[in-house]
Amino acid sequence: MIQPIAGIVMLASPYDWHVLAIAVAIVAVSYAASYWRIFVQWLAGIRGRDWTTTSALIDVVSVVVQTRQGRYGEYVVGYLATLTYFYRNPELQTGDYSRIFDDEADARAWAASYKGCNVMVHVDPRDPSNSVLRKEEL
Questions:
Q1: pLDDT grade, residue 49 (50/70/90)?
Q2: Domain ranges of the chain
């Protein structure tokens, strides 16, 4: 986050404070958007803690590089590791759990360690297709 802000500061003169403020706000919003999925997942975990639980199987794991476009090209901001699980309630349903890592090897090792594991997920009693895998359940 420092790199884009530093580039903006270098370009702005002391009299362009409003341009600098807008640019900093845009950079902050873009970073917040990249972590939106994690925030929504955390919020769902809080909401779903009282839902009934059922057994699920983590069958698909993936790691995706997260990049941002900067002044001098794209740069890596992290690695999103995602665990996709399957459960029956009563029909086959799916859900996922994600985590962001700074190091690709750490993300791949973390994801691979859960492949094939059984976990308990919280299922929304009003909508069985909606489920949450809480951090505490891993």
A1: confident
A2: 35-137
